[in-house]
Amino acid sequence: MPGVGDASLNFVRVRLMSRLLNHEDELTNTEHFALNEIFGAHCYSPLEDLVIARTKGIWMWDIDGKKYMDGLSAYSAHNAGHCHPRIVKETRKICGKLDTTSGAFLHKELGPFKAELATFCGKDKIWMQNGGTEAFEFAVKVSRLWGYSEAKGVTENMAEVIVVRGNFHGRTLGATSASSEPAYKKGFGPFMPGFVWVDYDNIPALKNAITPYTVAIFFEPIQGEAGIKVPHDGYLKAIGDLCCEHNILMVADEIQVGLGRTGYNLACDYENVEPDLYIIGKALGGGPVPVSAVAGNDNILGLIEPGMHGSTFAGNPLSCRLARTYLEILQEENLADKAHVMGNYFMDRLHDISSPYVTSIRGRGLLIGVELNRPARPFCEELKKLGLLCKETHGNIIRLAPPLIIEPEEIDWAIKRLKKVLEK
Ligand code: PLP
């Protein structure tokens, strides 16, 4: 049995457990990392020697009180900044008063929130989920359901969903099946059938991949995990035109790029394109809780009947209230406009840096990728030492995605550190 007989490891475990139970407040960085190493399954490799204890606005503090700028926003989950006062206030109002009821009983937060989100997306209906990948799964299910309906008429079990190479839709088995990334798939097969891959930003390839069985094309308006890949102008519109021409659903995964991040309320607004289904998440929860949703019209979401799908926690009162509050903040604080202006400013200042390592700077709004000609991780570790927290993606790209409330002087602060590290 693994672990049994390893006396020194057991000793460390016992000692750490005793420290954890008796002196939790005094644990050091090393002890926190050791606890995570011993007791955790290691799906992530967090930056070294950094344990966050407090967050506020665009700032984070570690357990020793050192202050850092958040350059990642939990992969775009903190668009309004950490612990936004209204989010905190609404959390306090709901907690202790109205708890999860599940789908078995309707609660008073659900209807008003769905109405508000549907209006925001310009759609008839909403289905809520928790994490983003769950919403992706639901969108695949409902796309297939639509494909087998009279509106499309594909023979049952034959539906094909086109996905784009380099996509990231999450980590469930369905999303992993849709992935083209060998590192995400190795060891987890067999995979779910029914996906067809095409290259990103390649309309002729998409056209060629369409068959009578195609029910939907799923795409990210900007590919985040793939390295902040921005398609050519006209890409989204061309997908929309093909979908109309062939009676196929256009499904936009806006989980990372939606809700203000790219300088627009929804990333597809950049080309004035309205997909059939929006998948949104991350920032929707206002920061502290996972909330995701699929928005679509009656002809698609109206096909779902009781018993076909469900989730105990989806649409719980806290999620609804916080998501509704985030939508209000997004609009009242003009977060999308801010992301647009500050993103341009950040990008301009980045272009001023003369670095032997930088090969490309790209993005839209406050979702920016700085591609290097070498691994980005050591640069992120150096930036951390200087107080700026960001994370590498795809090995050689630094992703910069601070909360959308960042001010010009704070960008200057970040640029000073980036310059120091990138010009070295
Ligand atoms: N889709 C996109 C585009 C994402 O960026 C992510 C997460 O990074 C997901 C789906 C999965 O969301 P979650 O991690 O909340 O399940």
Low-confidence segments, ≥5 residues, pLDDT <50?
none
Q: Architecture of the largest domain, according to CATH?
A: 3-Layer(aba) Sandwich
Q: What Rg do the Cα atoms give?
A: 22 Å
Shape label: globular
Terminus-to-terminus distance: 49 Å
Q: What is bound: which ligands?
A: pyridoxal-5'-phosphate
The number of strands is: 15
- Summarize the amount of helix as a percent range: 25-40%
Helix/strand-derived category reads: alpha/beta
Major sheet description: 7 strands, mixed
User: How many discrete domains?
Assistant: 3
Order of helices and strands: HHEEEHHHEHEHHEHEHEEEHHHEEHEEEH
For the largest beta sheet, what order do the strands appear in spatially? Answer: 4-10-9-8-7-5-6
Count of DSSP H/I helices: 15
Task: State the fourth-level CATH superfamily of the largest domain.
Answer: Type I PLP-dependent aspartate aminotransferase-like (Major domain)
